[in-house]
Write a structure and sequence with these properties.
CATH superfamily of the largest domain in chain B: Cytochrome c oxidase-like, subunit I domain
Largest sheet of chain A: none
Strand content of chain B: under 5%
Number of domains of chain B: 2
Shape of chain B: globular
Oligomer: heterotrimer
CATH class of the largest domain in chain B: Mainly Alpha
Distance between the termini of chain B: 10 Å
Structural class of chain A: mainly alpha
Radius of gyration of chain A: 28 Å
Structural class of chain B: mainly alpha
Largest interface: A-C, 75 and 68 residues
Number of helices of chain A: 6
Distance between the termini of chain A: 73 Å
CATH architecture of the largest domain in chain B: Up-down Bundle
Chains: A mainly alpha (169), B mainly alpha (668), C mainly alpha (207)
Order of helices and strands of chain A: HHHHHH
Number of domains of chain A: 3
Number of helices of chain B: 17
Helix content of chain A: 55-70%
Radius of gyration of chain B: 25 Å
Number of strands of chain B: 0
Chain lengths: 169, 668, 207
């Protein structure tokens, strides 16, 4: 049986596949060739210092002087913190994980995962805020646990079960 | 120098180049052994596919048996065939088995066998990971069923609602088997899904753009995305449950500040995409079968493909429609209801496109086609009952009744299973070089239709008249007696129909191989362009693809407009003998963009200079790794510290040995 | 004669530039990372929905909220350590891409070391929380915090093992300009773990 060779020659000649069409966004080798503009070690260190600066900024924003400022203008502290965190996230993803240079398929996976995770976070938050959970007195419960552990001599994991009246058999 | 596993015996080393005529004779002459090293250590997607299919089918029989037990208990009121707790175990295991041990593995098995062939690849992207997924599935399934002989199977429903699953609140020790078993299966599924994604994205033959990818490939791809993005949610849910049961936390216990609804949300965030994971491959199968047996290209290819994508997206936005009755609030109810209604639209689009495929076609009602048409009819019914469930006020009445049971089974049996049956009859000749008998197939089909509808259609009425789910018996004066009995009779008929199928399989395999089975249906996609069964390396030469229907190109009208019925083939047109017009304007190729040059990087053993084609070496390490995980699961299962430690250490040892051996093989 | 007319670039390191094979393995890792996003998203969602119970008035009064229990400067230092480890990781990859095997091995070792420092710091933090009387069993904060950071720590641990196992090969020159896919994928995993910490740090400690 004749072996079918693609018109234009052997498939190993990557340059001559114009009749089949060139690589698209997925896996065409061009996307993964390390260009002459490959990031240098210096560039990575620069990114590091930017990330460090953002981290320090985050820590300070969460502390008193800045906390008050943001609350004064009516912005929940979460907003600037999340923006800073997002900036760090994006920089690590783009530069350390090479997403900026690489095929967009890779970014697609991360972005899809992120959308789902963030969507989940906010939806769960909303759903659980909407339905009221019973008020739970953490301190009293903990004291009772400690008491029962002391008097009942129950083992750690099982003790909680017995004391909170979940019925045991 | 061929990379071989240090544990492989000397004889079955990776084959070297063979001259073409010898390959064909070998492929026909070698009768498959059904045991032995080549199965335990295989990394060949075809063997792994068959193992998935056989194991999945065995679990299907087990799950069916569990169903028959259930229906026997419910055949008359106040029956005492099954004790209540056993009944609970049965419905839990029936559902868990069918979903995780039957439908998913069979889907994966068909995908494993067919998808690499369909895209013109020599194997999956990660053959060893493929083997690992299978063995972990097998071990997980066994682990789950070990519960039967060790304190009872889980009795808390396949969805394991907290706090019933919490210690001391009604769940038995089987819950731990269920928890850990599902986690093992989850790892296997995610690994398998990664494999499919990379295979379909990267290993397509030259010219096989996404626009030309067979719809079964599309659906497998979408399903795999659903797996990787939904399974982590149930993994977390199960982990939190494990900590609640074993380490004294209170994630789901209000007494300790927890919330049972956390379980429900985490579970259904997975659970809803899961049902699309179950159905999409079957929709892909039907999209393959209909064109072949209508002798027409699929109607609205792009619509079906993009509908699949839309279903994939939307499936993550509707999970709380399983929770309408939990008091989410009007806004949440409305939002999820909207999504749930919306998601019916792409499905409806698909149905119309399938009907459009058949319209004006030259229909041949082989058994595969019968099941495909049956799929459409049954899925329409299941879809309609789903639409009513999407409305919260209606759902308040219907939820937790047999109406939902009816819906589930119409979409999962009438849908997924019948789609699977269609695929089995369709691809059986490709996999085994033999046909499933058409006469027996017809008997199978009609018994299925009668039994299935008798078993499940009355459940719509039973549910609407108030019969709750998961009750082990009912009072004689509820008015449910007749239809329960009818339903059980239908279930028995279904059981008989499955026996007919099993008989057909055995009968088929007992006959000698059929020489004409390379492309017996005159189908068009690449898996039919090689022998039946294919040689170990799948294709003698990498096929180049110019259209959606490579094997029909020479017979398809080129003018624009509706693709017409294709002419019957001249006998045995091989893909290599196609004539390729200089311009690649085939009528099916609406809107084709630049063809995408797929690469053929496969995780094969060593490759030298482009002449020889080596297959990945068999290796036992994937199985050892899976076994190590199984042992670790046992460590988490048992309470006595001595057992815990023993299993943990042994499991870790196997784990480390396997990783070491596996990585070493890759780097050789 | 059945000569295959394409060259299936092997996953093995013998492939000259291995670009196609780079793609395939990286793609697999990215698909896995996508799923890990949802994994940590689920854990974070669990933490987030439990958060209101950590700030009840009684707890505020007793100074037992996360804000008072957790030591921000200390964990800020841990975040810094992990950040450094990301830098060393990318420097390791950079070195290996230039076939500088000693530098590559050194930076790999540095990354692993920093990872171990991070885990050590986490362990200290866990012990200090236990000193406050907060355990898995008796505290909503305890269980949520420990699960979330514990699983993150487990991922760090796996990463450290992976890194260490790369070092012998790196020393032998097994990773070079023609083949650096192993450390590259390890790096992707490691950076992802760092990125998850960025998010966890923000949500748990700061907000």
């Amino acid at each position: 049986m004749a072996t079918q060779i693609a018109p234009g020659g052997s498939m190993t000649q990557r340059g001559s596949h114009s009749d089949i069409g060139d690589g698209g966004p997925l896996g065409g080798h061009g996307d993964n060739v390390e260009h002459a503009s490959h990031p240098t070690a210096r560039f990575y260190v620069l990114i590091f210092f930017i990330l460090l600066a953002i981290t320090i900024a985050e820590v300070f924003v969460a502390q008193e002087p800045f906390l008050g400022i943001f609350e004064g203008i009516g912005v929940p502290i979460a907003v600037p913190l999340l923006i800073l965190a997002a900036a760090k996230f994006l920089m690590i993803a783009a530069f350390y994980m090479h997403l900026k240079q690489d095929s967009r398929a890779f970014s697609a996976f991360l972005i899809a995962g992120l959308i789902l995770a963030i969507g989940m976070l906010f939806t769960f938050g909303g759903l659980f805020a909407a339905h009221s959970r019973e008020p739970f007195d953490q301190i009293a419960w903990r004291e009772q646990l400690a008491q029962n552990a002391g008097t009942g001599g129950a083992s750690g994991a099982g003790g909680a079960a017995a004391t909170t009246g979940r019925g045991g058999h | 120098m061929v990379a071989t596993s240090p544990l492989a015996p000397a004889a079955p080393a990776a084959p070297v180049v063979l001259p073409a005529p010898v390959i064909h004779e070998d492929a026909h002459a070698i009768e498959q052994r059904w045991y032995g090293w080549e199965w335990l250590a295989t990394v060949d997607h075809k063997k792994i596919g068959i193992m998935y299919l056989l194991t999945g089918f065995a679990f299907f029989l087990l799950g069916g048996f569990e169903a028959l037990l259930l229906r026997t208990q419910l055949i008359r009121p106040l029956n005492t065939f099954l004790q209540p707790d056993i009944f609970n175990q049965m419905f839990t295991m029936h559902a868990t088995t069918m979903i995780f041990l039957a439908i998913m593995p069979i889907n994966v098995g068909l995908g494993n066998y067919i998808v690499p062939l369909m895209v013109g690849a020599a194997d999956m992207a990660y053959p060893r990971l493929n083997a690992f997924s299978y063995w972990l599935f097998l071990f997980g399934g066994i682990f789950l069923n070990l519960s039967f002989i060790s304190g009872g199977a889980p009795n808390t429903g396949w969805f394991g609602y907290a706090p019933l699953t919490e210690p001391g609140l009604g769940g038995n020790s089987g819950v731990d088997y269920w928890n850990l078993g599902l986690q093992l299966l989850g790892v296997a599924s995610i690994a398998g899904a990664v494999n499919f994604i990379v295979t379909i994205l990267k290993l397509r033959a030259p010219g096989l753009t996404f626009n030309r990818l067979p719809l079964f490939g599309w659906m497998t791809l979408i399903t795999s995305f659903l797996v990787i993005f939904s399974f982590p949610s149930i993994t977390v849910a199960l982990i939190l449950l494990m900590f609640d049961r074993q380490f004294g936390t209170h994630f789901y216990l209000p007494s300790g500040g927890g919330d049972p609804l956390l379980w429900q949300h985490l579970f259904w965030f997975f659970g809803h995409p899961e049902v699309y994971i179950l159905i999409l491959p079957a929709m892909g199968i039907v999209s393959e079968v209909l064109p072949v047996f209508s002798r027409k290209p699929i109607f609205g290819y792009s619509f079906i493909a993009y509908s699949g994508v839309a279903i994939g997206f939307l499936s993550f936005t509707v999970w709380a429609h399983h929770m309408f009755a939990t008091g989410l609030g009007d806004f949440a109810n409305g939002a999820f209801a909207t999504g749930s209604f919306l998601i019916g639209v792409p499905t409806g689009v698909k149905i119309f496109n399938w009907i459009g495929t058949m319209w004006g076609g030259s229909l041949r009602f082989k058994t595969a086609m019968l099941f495909a048409v049956g799929f459409i009819a049954m899925f329409i019914i299941g879809g309609i009952s789903g639409v009513s469930l999407a409305s919260p006020p209606v759902d308040f009445q219907q939820t937790d009744t047999y109406y939902v049971v009816a819906h589930i089974h119409y979409v999962l049996f009438g849908g997924a299973i019948m789609g699977i049956f269609s695929g089995m009859y369709y691809w059986w000749p490709k996999m085994f070089g033999r046909f499933l008998d058409e006469g027996l197939g017809r008997v199978h089909f009609w018994l299925t239709m009668v039994g299935f509808n008798l078993a499940f259609f009355p459940m719509h009425w039973l549910g609407t008249e108030g019969m709750p789910r998961r009750i082990y018996t009912y009072f004689p004066d509820m008015g449910w007696n007749f239809w329960n009995m009818a339903s059980s009779v239908g279930a028995y008929i279904l059981g008989i129909s499955v026996m007919v199928l099993v008989g057909n399989m055995i009968y088929s395999y007992s006959r000698p191989r059929d020489e004409m089975a390379d492309n017996p249906w005159d189908a068009a996609t690449l898996e039919w362009a090689t022998t039946s069964p294919p040689p170990a390396h799948n294709f003698d030469a990498v096929p180049v693809v110019y259209s959606r229907y490579p094997l029909w190109e020479d017979r398809h009208p080129v003018e624009g407009g509706q693709p017409a019925v294709i002419a019957t083939a001249a006998p045995h047109t091989s893909i290599d003998e196609r004539s390729h017009p200089a311009d690649t304007q085939v009528a099916v190729g609406e809107g084709e963009t630049n063809a995408h040059l797929a690469t053929d990087a496969t995780d094969h053993g060593e490759h030298d200079a482009g002449h020889a084609f080596h297959l990945p070496a068999p290796t036992i390490f994937p199985m050892i790794l899976a076994f190590g995980l199984l042992l670790i699961a046992f460590a988490l299962l048992f309470s006595p510290p001595i057992l815990k430690v023993t299993f943990l250490i042994t499991g870790v040892i196997y784990f480390v040995v396997a990783i070491y051996g596996w990585v070493k093989q890759i780097s050789e | 004669m059945a000569v295959v007319t394409h060259s299936p670039d092997a996953m093995s390191e013998r492939a000259p530039t291995g670009l196609e094979s780079l793609d395939v393995r990286k793609l697999g890792m990215w698909a896995f990372l996508g799923s890990e996003c949802v994994f940590f998203g689920s854990l974070l969602s669990m933490y987030f929905v439990n958060r209101p119970l950590m700030f009840s008035p009684a707890l505020e009064a007793a100074h037992l909220t996360p804000k008072t229990i957790l030591n921000i400067p200390f964990t800020g230092a841990l975040a810094f350590i992990l950040l450094c480890s990301s830098l060393t990781m990318v420097l390791a990859l950079n070195a290996m891409q230039q076939s500088r095997r000693r530098a590559g091995s050194f930076w790999l070792l540095a990354t692993a070391f920093l990872g171990m420092l991070f885990l050590g710091g986490q362990a200290i933090e866990f012990m200090e929380i236990a000193h406050e009387g907060i355990t898995l069993q008796n505290s909503v904060f305890g269980q949520s915090f420990l699960l979330l950071t514990g699983f993150h720590g487990t991922h760090v641990f796996v990463g450290i093992i992976w890194l260490i196992s790369c070092i012998p090969r790196a020393l032998r020159g097994g990773f070079h300009a023609g083949n650096y896919i192993g450390p590259e994928i390890c790096g992707l995993y490691w950076h992802f773990v760092d990125v998850v910490w960025v998010v966890i740090f923000t949500i748990i400690y700061l907000i």
